[in-house]
Structure formats: structure tokens, C-alpha cells
Description:
single chain, Rossmann fold, six-stranded parallel beta sheet, two-stranded antiparallel ribbon, 8 strands
Amino acid sequence: MQDLIKKAGQVKLLIMDVDGILSNGQIIYDANGIETKAFSVQDGVGVKSLARYGILTAIITGRSSAMVDKRATEMGVNHVVQGRDDKLIALKELLSSLDPALNITAADCAYMGDDLPDIKAMQTVGFAATVPNAHAEVIKRSDMVTTRAGGAGAVREVCDLILKGYGHYQDFIAHYTLDETQAQDELS
């Protein structure tokens, strides 16, 4: 686990797929043909936590959806690339579009994906993560398999691991907790 934490501590940019990672992978249409997706609030807190410490985030997805834009904006995702079937080319284009002063290479990235179109991008980055119900070939090529499924806090697990790798996790948690003295004062 220490090696995994150390590897996560090198991540400067977390790249996420949507269907199966930020959502549960289901595509649901209502009676009017309007597509809906469900996203995890916990994933949103995790993505925002990375921004607090200067770690960038991006989405690369094969589908295009206004819901993805809306959710990405809510979470503060830095870059959104939609409608791209070749995720490796999309990853390379994303990296080349970044400010050179950031000095971010593929080795500095984490990529979360769950299906075959994600594999090449995952093989290119420094840290690859997936979910337990991912395709077997994706699992085989991943550094980390989360305990939670996509759309149910899997991204949060990776975000927490990245914060641990940088030594920021306890500081992040301290924003949401009281120390023993503060807790006792609240009870009084």
C-alpha cells in the first residue's frame, strides 16, 4: 500500500472517464428520450479536495452530454473533453494544450477508466486506476482497483489516495472535524 500511496503522490493531473467511473455506467432515457446520469456527491468532494492543493482534474469521455458539462462545472474540473473515442489521442492533445509552465507529462497523470477504450490512455500515464466491475483487461493493467463502484465513490477513493501521497489527507480531514477540545466545548 505504501508504494501505491507514493505513486499517487506524484500525480499532478487526475483524468477521469464518465460512464462507469463518475457514473454507474448506466444510460437512462426518460419517456421523452432525455438522457440522465447519477453522480456521487462524495466524488465531487474528492475532486474539489484536489483543487484545494493545486492538483488539476480532467474528464475524457467518448460520449457528449450537457450533464457532464454541468457536473464538471459543479466539481470544478479544469478540463473537459467529450465525444472522443480515441482516448489516447485525446490525452495527448489535452497534455499539449496545458500551460508549459505546469510541466505536466503523461507520467505525472492518473487516469481512471473502466472499459477497453480507456486502456491505451491508462497504459500511458504514471498511475492507472479502475473500479471492481471494470473489464478484466482494464483491471489487469491498473495500479489500483477501488473498493467502490463507479458513481458510488470510486473517484473519491483515488482522490483520498492522492492526498495521502502528498501528505495532505489529514489537513483536508481537519477542515471537517473538531479536535477533542472543540468537541467537548460544543457539548458544553
